């Protein structure tokens, strides 16, 4: 076995081997070509069977604002300034209502293209579908309900409308107010007629909708006018009754006069209060006791500023000054001093009497001011209550006036709308117009036969290539020597082709000498050479497999005969559970052999037999034994193997499958190495890896794998020798590849 180097594995993980896929496609080119050709032929037949379809297009301009005699947009309820307006119009063009208008106008119910119930001539595909639906498995057990003529007519109409809508295409032109109306039909002229009819039906529907809205608005306004007039009359009567009841002409000056009186009273009350406070302060000061003449009356303006008080105080000051001057010259008894004292006393008495009179006057004035303040306060409260009553009346009056004005304004609005709707009731305002009408096309738009055929050819080729690649990706088995190298990262000891003649029976030993199977024999010799080069230090070649029926016994027998050509070789059948080596050489299955020698001490020479053609010595399995593992694990069996290794140049050992029983583990543990046979296109990579893991767990060296029963004839001619794979071309010349 030759493992790929770490550098090769790293390079393979970083790059994609496109050459592998190219080789895979080259191997399957015939299948790909056949599938592509078949699909292309079917697409040609399909394209030829399709009826030609004609496509006609009309261009319609949707007006953003309808032409009105007067503005009645608020009545009709159309706002063309909104972005959703045009989207709404496009959906109206595709609506069922427009479709039904066109169906009725052009009587499309009588056209077989749209009415599936007219029983036109059925196509081959339709006949096939009908035949399939008529099969018993597709028949329903439900009772078919018989429809009445009216129900059948509705059903037919719905079917025609659905088919019509499926053929209709509405495509707005971006950033414009234009919209294309496209219709497909088997009849070129009918396609053009339908495209134009859709636009006309849309225009008529819009016109009818506006006129209907106008008529409805006019009718509603007329009915509402009577109610509004009655409401206005009631509100006017209520206002008149209120004015008469409250004896008011209107509210002009009512609130102004009342507020003026109240403000005046408040001002007068404030003045009286200030005067009372001033008098109370002065009276309290003057009534506190002491001589009035000598008391401090400067804080009382009513007294201090009185002219007589000012005069008397001036005279008193002069008398005091004279008294002071005379006192410096004369004594108290002097006549001048006595005269001045008398004068001063006289002035003081006069001043006290005057101040007393003024204080009495202040007290009387204080009582009068208090009385006045109380009267003003009572009058103010009275005026406030009267003003509140006037305010309530004013609010009632204003409410009645507002109601009357509101009813009058609403009535005026309705009068204006009534005149507008009456003026536009017979005005035809179209919401769209044609910029280009549809004309009958000269050539069909469908089918595009070349495109269908080309697409089918390319698609079928891609599908075929994808299937081939996917099958290879999801293939979890080994199919060739090259595939084994790609999947497992190792080069097999050899690749052995499958012999189709021995499909259901074992391969006899005579095949190795038959010239009819030259390729098979050469592959055996190539595997022998590789094994010999890899096992120069060992005489044992232990052969096993992962699972039964992988051809390990056939490989063991033919390898043994190949080794017998170059040296003395012994073939031992250690598959004690299902032995078959003896039968391959024409002997009975339980011919005395290994078990007879180990259990019954039969002479070894009696258990061996030699094949005359190849010169191969064979040790058969012998009689059946109930405990083959104990027998193979015995020390005597190990000694026998070493004894036979001394007598022969090569000892080939056939063992049971590794994943079925552990017998091969016991034998390979003694020999040290094992060759695993795997069946091409059958043995799963997972099974092989499990087998290799089991051997590695038991410290058994894997000598390599042998790929058996390769199906591809090209792979039959691959042989492994050393580090290279050799290919035999059609001229039997060897070509070496790494």
Report on the architecture of this protein.
- The protein has 738 residues and is an alpha/beta fold.
- Strands 7-14-13-8-12-9-11-10 form an eight-stranded mixed sheet. A four-stranded antiparallel sheet has the order 3-4-2-5.
- Strand 10 and strand 11 (617-619) form a beta hairpin.
- The longest helix is centred in the middle third of the chain and has 90 residues, at 335-424.
- The relative contact order is 0.10.
Short description:
The protein contains 24 helices and 17 strands. The chain is an alpha/beta fold.
Question: What topology does this entry show?
Answer:
Blueprint lengths: L1 E2 L2 H9 L3 H10 L1 H21 L4 E9 L10 H4 L7 H10 L2 H11 L17 H10 L15 H19 E5 L5 E8 L2 H59 L7 H33 L14 H4 L2 H23 L5 H90 L7 E5 L12 H26 L6 H8 L1 E2 L2 E4 L20 H17 L5 E6 L6 H13 L4 E5 L7 H4 L9 H7 L3 H4 E3 L6 E3 L8 H5 L2 H13 L2 E5 L8 H9 L1 E7 L5 H13 L3 E10 L7 E4 L2 E5 L5 E4 L1
Parallel strand pairs: 7-14, 8-12, 8-13, 9-11, 9-12, 13-14
Antiparallel strand pairs: 1-6, 2-4, 2-5, 3-4, 10-11, 15-16, 16-17
Global geometry? elongated
As a whole number of angstroms, the C-alpha radius of gyration is 65 Å
Ranges where pLDDT stays below 50 over 5 or more residues in a row are 1-14, 67-80, 290-294, 713-738
**Number of contiguous helices:** 24
* Largest β sheet strand count, sense and barrel closure: 8 strands, mixed
Helix content: 55-70%
Mean model confidence by pLDDT: 77
As a percent range, the share of strand residues is 5-15%
Q: Supply the helix-strand structural class.
A: alpha/beta
Strands side by side in the biggest sheet: 7-14-13-8-12-9-11-10
Could you tell me the number of beta strands?
17
| N→C terminal distance | 15 Å
């Amino acid at each position: 076995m030759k493992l790929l180097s770490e550098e090769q594995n790293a390079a393979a993980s970083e790059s994609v081997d496109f050459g592998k896929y190219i080789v895979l496609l080259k191997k399957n080119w015939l299948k790909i070509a056949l599938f592509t050709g078949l699909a292309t032929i079917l697409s040609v037949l399909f394209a030829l069977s399709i009826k030609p379809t004609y496509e006609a297009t009309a261009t319609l301009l949707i007006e953003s604002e309808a032409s009105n005699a007067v503005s009645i947009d608020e009545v009709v309820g159309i706002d063309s300034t909104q972005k959703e307006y045009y989207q709404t119009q496009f959906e109206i063009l595709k609506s069922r209502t427009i479709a039904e208008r066109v169906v009725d106008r052009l009587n499309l119910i009588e056209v077989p293209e749209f009415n599936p119930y007219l029983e036109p001539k059925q196509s081959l595909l339709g006949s096939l579908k009908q035949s399939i639906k008529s099969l018993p498995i597709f028949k329903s057990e439900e009772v078919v309900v018989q429809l009445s003529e009216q129900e059948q007519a509705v059903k037919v109409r719905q079917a025609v409308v659905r088919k019509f809508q499926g053929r209709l295409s509405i495509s707005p032109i971006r950033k414009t107010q234009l919209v294309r109306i496209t219709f497909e039909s088997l009849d070129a002229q009918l396609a053009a007629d339908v495209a134009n009819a859709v636009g006309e039906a849309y225009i008529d529907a819009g016109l009818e909708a506006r006129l209907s809205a106008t008529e409805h608005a006019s009718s509603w306004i007329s009915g509402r006018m009577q109610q509004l007039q009655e409401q206005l009359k009631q509100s006017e009567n209520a206002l008149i009754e209120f004015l008469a009841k409250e004896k008011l002409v209107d509210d002009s000056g009512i609130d102004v006069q009342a507020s003026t009186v109240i403000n005046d009273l408040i001002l007068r009350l404030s003045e009286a209060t200030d005067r009372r406070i001033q008098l109370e302060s002065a009276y309290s000061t003057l009534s506190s006791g002491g001589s009035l003449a000598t008391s401090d009356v400067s804080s009382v303006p009513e007294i201090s500023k009185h002219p007589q008080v000012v005069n008397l105080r001036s005279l008193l000051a002069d008398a005091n000054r004279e008294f002071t001057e005379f006192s410096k010259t004369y004594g108290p008894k002097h006549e001048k001093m006595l005269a001045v004292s008398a004068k001063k006393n006289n002035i003081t008495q006069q001043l006290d009497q005057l101040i007393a009179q003024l204080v009495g006057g202040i007290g009387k004035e204080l009582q009068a001011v208090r009385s006045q303040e109380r009267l003003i306060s009572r009058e103010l409260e009275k005026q406030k209550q009267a003003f509140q009553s006037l305010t309530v009346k004013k609010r009632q009056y204003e409410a009645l006036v507002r109601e009357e004005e509101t009813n009058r304004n609403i009535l005026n609005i309705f009068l204006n709308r009534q005149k507008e709707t009456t003026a536009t009731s017979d005005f035809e305002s179209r919401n769209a117009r044609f910029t280009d009408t549809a004309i009958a096309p000269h050539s069909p738009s469908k089918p595009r036969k070349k495109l269908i055929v080309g697409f089918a050819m390319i698609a079928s080729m891609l599908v075929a290539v994808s299937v081939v690649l996917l099958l290879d990706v999801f293939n979890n088995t080994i199919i060739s020597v090259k595939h084994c190298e790609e999947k497992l990262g190792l080069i097999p000891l050899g690749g052995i082709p499958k012999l189709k003649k021995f499909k259901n029976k074992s391969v006899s030993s005579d095949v190795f000498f038959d010239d009819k199977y030259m390729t098979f024999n050469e592959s055996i010799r190539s595997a022998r050479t590789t094994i010999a080069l890899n096992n120069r230090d060992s005489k044992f070649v232990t052969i096993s497999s992962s699972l039964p029926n992988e051809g390990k016994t056939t490989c063991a027998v033919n390898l043994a005969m190949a080794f017998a050509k170059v040296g003395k070789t012994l073939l031992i059948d250690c598959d004690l559970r299902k032995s078959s080596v003896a039968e391959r050489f024409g002997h009975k299955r339980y011919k005395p052999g290994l078990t007879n020698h180990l259990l019954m001490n039969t002479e070894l020479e009696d258990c061996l037999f030699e094949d005359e053609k190849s010169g191969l010595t064979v040790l058969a399995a012998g009689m059946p034994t109930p405990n083959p593992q104990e027998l193979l694990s015995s020390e005597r069996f190990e000694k026998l193997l070493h004894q036979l290794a001394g007598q022969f140049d090569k000892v080939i050992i056939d063992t049971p499958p590794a994943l079925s029983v552990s017998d091969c583990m016991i034998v390979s543990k003694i020999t040290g190495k094992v060759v695993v046979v795997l069946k091409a296109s059958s043995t799963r990579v997972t099974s092989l890896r499990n087998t290799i893991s089991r051997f590695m767990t038991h410290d058994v060296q894997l000598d390599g794998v042998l790929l058996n029963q390769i199906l591809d004839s090209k792979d039959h001619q691959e042989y492994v020798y050393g580090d290279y794979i050799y290919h035999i071309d059609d001229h039997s010349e060897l070509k070496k590849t790494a």
